[in-house]
Design brief:
It contains 2 helices and 5 strands. Helix 2 links the parallel strand 2 (about 40-50) and strand 3. Strands 3-2-4-1-5 form a 5-stranded mixed sheet, with helices on one face. The protein is about 20% helix and about 30% strand. With about 120 residues, the chain is of the alpha/beta class. The protein has one domain (about 1-120): RutC-like (60s Ribosomal Protein L30, Chain: A). The chain is globular.
Length: about 120
């Protein structure tokens, strides 16, 4: 089965290192909690809010050992008024035997407010 796994994290500043580390940590947590490995991943879509432009968050993903060949695409979120700022969102599409209700969607920092109903 192919499933989408959501995640999001916030950073305190528009700084390359912080964006890279937050992205890396978020994706590591998504993989660990859902017991997926790089070869299980079909692709990763990463979006950032318009206020994060100091770096490509995909570089943070590339910091993960074994993720060299995982396809990734970065994009910018829609600039909705009053939306959560300095936010990195991910959609990991992966092969898994888990049912949809058993997927662990991961939210770090202020991003926890985005989907409190999905936090386990």
């Amino acid at each position: 089965m192919i499933r989408g796994i959501r995640g999001a994290a916030t950073v305190s500043a528009n700084e390359a290192e912080e964006i890279h580390i937050a992205t890396r940590d978020l994706l590591l947590d998504v993989a660990e909690k859902n017991e997926i490995y790089p070869e299980d991943i079909v692709s990763v879509l990463i979006s950032v809010t318009p206020d994060l432009n100091a770096a490509f968050p995909a570089k943070g993903m590339r910091m993960i050992n074994g993720w060299t060949y995982v396809p990734v695409m970065c994009t910018t979120e829609i600039p909705v008024p009053n939306a959560l700022e300095k936010c990195i969102r991910v959609m990991v599409t992966a092969r898994t035997e888990r049912k949809q209700q058993d997927i662990h969607h991961i939210y770090h920092g202020e991003a926890k407010q985005l989907r409190p109903d999905l936090i386990k």
